[in-house]
Specification:
By secondary structure, this protein is α/β, with parallel strands linked by helices. Helix content is 46%, strand content 16%. The chain starts with a helix and ends with a helix.
Length: 398
């Protein structure tokens, strides 16, 4: 087959650059220990930050919902697939986020694509932080809006672009809208966006702001409401987005904002309108996760996770390794070369530890890293094991 021949050549190219990716089959539930190819590995790669993905209460919520509502939603939300658990989830989300309304999607990816494309069209301008997630970049391309990128977390660059954009677009098209999109906690570096200052800037320039809290929801702020809430600027952000698949331990994405925004997205977000509603049990499980995240148990879990992050930073430092992220549970060990990152990850697997090598195109070329993620379910002993395995490997590198 000609197609396969051509694709073989492309795959060989990826392999030669250390960029080939393959699926690894996991034969266990998500957790700090996972089973891969008969090997039990200590897992430092999961976004299940609060250790909820295999929680018995979530499983029970799923089973109860399956018994009552079955497995499939049967249709899209706007036809006959808008089941009670979807509505209960959206009510719980709005209360949790402290917004008038919320809307759930089948994934965070679908949320970004549906929302951005519903809000902007060819005549508009989209301004993105250089390091935003691929789903936002894809949404930007699909929207057809003019795309401008500001240097990562660089307020001066954002201000420069906002000012030049507003003069240019007003001259060309007085009705042009400008939307700034950033993450609150960045997915591959774990650093925070200066949201207070970004809010000031966008208000001054008359732009809208969308903030993706994928790695902050459940972890930051009182009751885990996110970084925007912690910084006291949530009310001034037009569009708050996040995922239900990370700290919340389930699956799906959401938008939190005004009732008008949600009513509009129900009409116009194509990934919402033209897709079968997520299984009602998934919605019911996410609602249960939101209750746990907001409770005092959620607070304890957050504290445990932060304590472990501190412990890892200090233990690694004592071994001469810099694994630091001042702000988050995403703790990258920078490596640089793609092939070296892959070798390190594979040496760690031989020692019973699963830490992913993150490479281009997820991060820039030559910025490969081991991305260690901690969860509330890890223990201090797990951290000691990791550092003990990692230190000799890192120090042996040329
Ligand atoms: C994971 C992630 C998403 C996508 O969410 P899914 O629910 O996994 O589709 C969006 N934005 C950021 C920043 C993410 O890290």
């Amino acid at each position: 087959m000609k197609l396969d021949q051509e694709l073989e050549a492309r795959l060989a190219g990826l392999r030669a650059q250390g960029l080939l990716r393959e699926l690894r089959r996991v034969d266990s539930a998500q957790g700090t220990r996972i089973q891969i190819r008969g090997k039990n590995l200590l897992n430092f790669s999961s976004n299940d930050y609060l250790g909820l993905a295999n929680d018995p209460r979530l499983k029970q919520a799923a089973v109860r919902a399956i018994e009552k509502y079955g497995v499939g939603a049967g249709a899209s939300r706007l036809v006959c697939g808008s089941l009670a658990p979807h509505h209960e989830l959206e009510e719980a989300l709005a209360v949790f986020k402290g917004t008038p309304a919320a809307l759930s999607f089948s994934s965070g990816y679908a949320t970004a694509v549906g929302t951005i494309c519903a809000l902007l069209s060819r005549d508009d301008v989209l301004i993105l932080d250089k390091l935003v997630h691929a789903c936002i970049v894809d949404a930007a391309r699909l929207s057809g809006a003019t795309l401008r990128i500001f240097k990562h977390n660089d307020l001066n660059d954002l201000e420069r672009i906002l000012k030049s954009t507003s003069t240019k677009t007003i001259l060309r098209n007085p009705a042009a809208r400008v939307l700034v999109v950033t993450e609150s906690v960045f997915s591959m570096d774990g650093d925070e966006a200066p949201l207070r200052e970004i809010v000031e800037l966008k208000d001054r320039c008359g732009a809208w702001l969308m903030v993706d809290e994928a790695h902050a929801i459940g972890l930051y702020g009182e009751r885990g409401q996110g970084l925007a809430r912690q910084l006291g600027v949530a009310e001034r952000i037009e569009i708050q987005m996040g995922t239900l698949g990370k700290a919340l331990g389930v699956s799906g994405g959401y938008i939190a904002g005004s009732r008008t925004l949600v009513d509009y997205l129900v009409n116009r977000a194509r990934s919402f309108v033209f897709s079968t509603a997520p299984p009602p049990a998934v919605a019911a499980t996410a609602t249960e996760a939101i209750q746990i995240v907001q409770s005092s148990e959620g607070e304890t879990r957050r504290q445990t996770a932060w304590d472990l992050a501190n412990l890892l930073e200090h233990t690694a430092d004592a071994e001469g390794m810099k694994i630091a992220s001042p702000d988050s549970l995403i703790m990258p060990l920078m490596v640089g070369a793609e092939t070296q990152a892959v070798e390190l990850a594979s040496a760690l697997r031989e020692r019973g530890m699963f830490v992913p090598a993150i490479r281009y195109p997820t991060v820039a070329r030559g910025a490969a890293r081991l991305r260690i993620t901690l969860t509330a379910a890890h223990t201090p002993d797990n951290i000691a094991e990791l550092v003990h395995a990692l230190a000799p490997l890192v120090h042996r590198r040329p």
